[in-house]
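hey
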């Protein structure tokens, strides 16, 4: 007695739902990555530069025009900058440090913070704002 199956099982796989999920995740990460802002103090006027860094900093050191120091948004004294950075970079050795300094701050202050970075072999990026292009 020959019995035939009435329903056939489809062994194909549809990728349409998978591509929908991938595009939704892509859009989500694109939107959330633009919402991430550094801990830089917003009332600073950064020096202007033609060149902008391509590396994204993981932590920030900010110096305001009234010589207040901030590491990741927390106010610290100058002596606390090095131990604070050391504790941050011990967790993640590939960390870039962005230095946000108001343009009215003396360059000697920038040099002292740069010396901390050189002494400890930190990757330091001087944050600048883009120069306006002449027409």
């Amino acid at each position: 007695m020959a019995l035939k199956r009435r329903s056939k099982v489809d062994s194909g796989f549809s990728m349409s739902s998978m591509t929908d999920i991938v595009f939704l995740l892509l859009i989500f990460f694109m939107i959330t990555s633009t919402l991430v802002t550094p801990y830089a103090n917003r009332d600073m006027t950064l020096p202007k530069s033609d060149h902008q860094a391509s590396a994204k900093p993981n932590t920030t050191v900010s110096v305001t025009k009234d010589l207040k120091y901030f590491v990741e948004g927390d106010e610290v004294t100058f002596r606390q900058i090095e131990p604070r950075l050391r504790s941050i970079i011990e967790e993640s050795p590939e960390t870039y440090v962005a230095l946000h300094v108001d343009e009215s701050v003396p360059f000697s202050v920038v040099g002292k913070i740069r010396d901390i970075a050189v002494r400890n072999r930190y990757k330091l990026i001087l944050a600048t704002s883009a120069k306006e292009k002449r027409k």
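The two ends are 89 Å apart (CA to CA). Strands lie at 48-49, 59-63, 69-71, 74-76, 96-101, 123-126, 129-130.
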